[in-house]
């Protein structure tokens, strides 16, 4: 409890963090509500285009249970870097301002300090999942008025996958920050590794092992939902998973644990 | 064992130690930052740790505060290891004042109070004591360096500590700021709080400290009272076969300001001019024959000035 209050004291005074978090939440909510009106295939009513007119995402069944959870968590996944960066700056600040050191001098143990940062990690992961969960529930209720409340959560396991995905990225970001002790370096490494290095290694490995790369599994938790939603799968001969892959989920949680422990060991071993 | 007999010559009291350091050593790769350091800081003293920049002062303080791990050696606070309980009895700042720049002084102190688990912190009072109450709600980053240093002292005082540890508290300040900090420290010492100050300025240590340890290249060069270091009229180191008898005789003399026994020798800081031969003659008349006699006059001061003023190599 002491650590939660401590984190809150540190966090709430920072305008950038508060506004950033607020914007992140608004962004996600706005996106969830607004995306229904977007027409993915360009201008509508293309009567002569020969392409099937799908209309807006909303009309395509974006908000229909059970697809809604798959769709929302997939879209929201693109925004997970926002809380990751906020958290990364928040942790790196403790090094930059040497307040980490002062915290220890004032009486905190390294373990307590680490736990306080894990609390922030959990806070952002839970917040992200809750925002998607609650907003998703509201839009699902609006668009599926004839279903009962429990039926709304059909396909809700995607929320678990989303939580795992965000949690993993948060822990990975914090790990890199503890490793590098600088926000700039940590962000560069995070982006480079996540979007370049690992896909490249994955491409070389090709085979059965690429799923065991650290960030790979977390990325494959929620695959693109659109071909499934629009029943393109059957047309294109694809097979999109209708639920979340258990293997990837386990691997993601394992790596989350590994990086969480790794960050702790780094902190324990190094001088403040 | 140090026997302080300056104030009460007849009673040999063992002074309580707030901090004891035994053979503390820190290596950074091949560099030895602190080399087998032994130090004892008596309760109630204003203890200066004097040394040029890069002599290992901050590393030493970092180790005893638990933020830098030692390569070997031990230390204890109030006879106990460093833990949450002992940390609460210490108020310390290492290097620069470290606060959250985006928070006000008050909010920063709230965080310190939260960490130290102080139930009802009197933030107003400590801010008042360092003359910062008017700026309590300004963000830390808007503070001048002098104000930052004062806030750091306020923060260290928040828990009514028994020991205050300051690292170069006047570094980078203008003369006015320096005077303010020094007055503050003197006031704090008067309240009975033991103060430990790391400094590279002999002048500073001379002005505010009672005791001093001189460190260079991580090695202890000297530890004793400031009087002994600066020498007064000189320092006389003597011993006889029967030191008790010698001491009893010396207690009747008035030409020195303090006596200290160290490794079987008596170290006298002279307050009057007296030559070594005069001392020897006076003692011989009382049938006390010295087996060791060493006199040095202010030589240490010159030596320390030289080494503390040497530019950082």
Classify the secondary structure makeup of chain B into a structural class.
alpha/beta
Question: What proportion of the residues of chain A form beta strands (DSSP E)?
Answer: under 5%
Order of helices and strands of chain A: HHHHHHHHHHHHH
| Total count of domains of chain A | 1
What is the multimeric organization of the chains shown? heterodimer
Residue share in β-strands of chain B: 25-35%
Biggest sheet details of chain B: 6 strands, mixed
Structural features:
heterodimer, A: 272 residues, mainly alpha, 13 helices, 69% helix, B: 313 residues, alpha/beta, Rossmann fold, Alpha-Beta Plaits, 6-stranded mixed β-sheet, 5-stranded antiparallel β-sheet, 14 strands, elongated, disordered N terminus
Report on the architecture of this protein.
- The complex is a heterodimer of chains A (272) and B (313).
- Chain A has 272 residues and is an all-alpha fold.
- Chain A has one domain.
- Chain A has 13 helices and no strands.
- Chain A is globular, with a radius of gyration of 21 Å.
- Residues 43-50 of chain A have low confidence and may be disordered.
- Chain B folds into 2 domains: 3-226, Rossmann fold; 232-297, Alpha-Beta Plaits, CATH 3.30.70.
- Chain B has a 6-stranded mixed beta sheet with strand order 6-7-8-4-9-10, sandwiched between helices. Chain B has a 5-stranded antiparallel beta sheet with strand order 1-12-13-11-14.
- Chain B is elongated.
- Mean pLDDT of chain B is 86; it is low at 1-12.
Q: Would you kindly provide a brief summary of this structure?
A:
The complex is a heterodimer of chains A (272) and B (313). With 272 residues, chain A is an all-alpha fold.
Topology:
The complex is a heterodimer of chains A (272) and B (313).
Chain A lengths: L1 H11 L2 H20 L22 H4 L6 H10 L4 H16 L2 H8 L3 H34 L13 H24 L2 H23 L10 H5 L5 H4 L2 H5 L9 H24 L3
Helix pairs in contact in A: 1-7, 2-5, 2-7, 4-7, 4-8, 5-7, 5-8, 7-8, 7-13, 8-9, 8-13
Chain B lengths: L2 E2 L12 E12 L2 E12 L3 E5 L6 H8 L7 E6 L6 H4 L2 E3 L12 H12 L6 H7 L15 H13 L5 E5 L7 H16 L3 E6 L2 H7 L2 E6 L2 E7 H5 L4 E6 L2 H8 L5 E7 L2 E6 L5 H10 L4 E7 L2 H11 L4
């Amino acid at each position: 409890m002491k650590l939660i209050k401590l984190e809150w004291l540190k966090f709430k005074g920072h305008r950038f963090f508060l506004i950033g978090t607020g914007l992140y939440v608004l962004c996600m909510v706005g996106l969830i509500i607004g995306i229904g009106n977007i027409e993915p295939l360009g201008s509508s009513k293309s009567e002569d285009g020969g392409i099937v007119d799908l209309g807006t995402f909303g009309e395509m069944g974006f908000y229909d249970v059970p697809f809604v959870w798959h769709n929302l968590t997939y879209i929201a996944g693109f925004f997970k870097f926002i809380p990751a960066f906020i958290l990364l700056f928040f942790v790196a600040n403790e090094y930059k301002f040497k307040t980490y050191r002062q915290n220890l001098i004032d009486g905190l143990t390294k373990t307590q300090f680490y736990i306080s940062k894990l609390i922030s990690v959990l806070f952002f992961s839970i917040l992200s999942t809750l925002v998607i969960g609650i907003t998703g529930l509201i839009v699902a209720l609006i668009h599926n008025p004839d279903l009962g409340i429990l039926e709304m959560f059909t396909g809700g396991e995607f929320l678990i996958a989303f939580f795992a995905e965000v949690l993993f990225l948060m822990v990975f970001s914090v790990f890199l920050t503890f490793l590098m002790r600088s926000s700039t370096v940590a962000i560069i490494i995070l982006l480079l590794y996540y979007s370049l290095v690992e896909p490249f290694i994955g491409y070389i490995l090709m085979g059965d092992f690429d799923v065991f790369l650290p960030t790979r599994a977390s990325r494959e938790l929620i695959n693109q939902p659109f071909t499934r939603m629009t029943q393109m799968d059957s047309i294109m001969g694809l097979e999109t998973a209708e639920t979340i892959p258990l293997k990837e989920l386990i691997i993601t949680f394992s790596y989350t644990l590994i990086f969480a422990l790794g960050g702790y060991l780094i902190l324990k071993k190094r001088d403040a | 064992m140090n026997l302080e007999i300056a104030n009460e010559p007849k009673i040999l009291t063992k002074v309580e130690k707030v901090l004891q350091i035994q053979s503390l050593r820190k290596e950074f790769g091949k560099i030895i930052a602190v080399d087998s350091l032994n130090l004892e800081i008596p309760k109630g003293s204003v203890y200066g740790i004097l040394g040029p920049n890069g002599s290992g002062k901050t590393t030493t303080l970092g180790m005893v505060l638990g933020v830098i791990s030692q390569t070997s050696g031990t230390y204890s606070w109030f006879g106990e290891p460093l833990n949450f309980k002992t940390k609460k009895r210490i108020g310390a700042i290492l290097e620069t004042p470290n606060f959250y720049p985006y928070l006000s002084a008050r909010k920063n102190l709230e965080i310190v109070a939260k960490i130290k688990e102080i139930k009802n912190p009197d933030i107003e009072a400590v801010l008042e004591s360092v003359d910062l109450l008017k700026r309590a709600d300004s963000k830390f980053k808007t503070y001048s360096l002098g104000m930052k240093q004062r806030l750091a002292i306020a923060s260290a005082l928040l828990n009514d500590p028994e020991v205050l540890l300051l690292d170069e508290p006047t570094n980078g300040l203008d003369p006015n700021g320096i005077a303010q900090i020094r007055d503050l420290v003197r006031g704090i010492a008067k309240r009975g709080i033991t103060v430990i100050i790391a400094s590279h300025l002999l002048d500073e240590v001379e002005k505010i400290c009672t005791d001093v340890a001189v460190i260079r290249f991580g090695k202890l060069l000297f530890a004793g009272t400031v009087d002994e270091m600066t020498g007064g009229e000189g320092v006389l180191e003597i011993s006889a076969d029967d030191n008790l008898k010698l001491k009893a005789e010396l207690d009747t003399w008035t030409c020195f300001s303090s006596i200290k026994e160290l490794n079987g020798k008596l170290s006298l800081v002279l307050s009057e001019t007296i030559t070594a031969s005069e001392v020897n003659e006076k003692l011989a008349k009382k049938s006390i024959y010295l087996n060791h006699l060493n006199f040095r006059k202010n030589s240490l001061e010159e030596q320390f000035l030289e080494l503390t003023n040497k530019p950082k190599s």
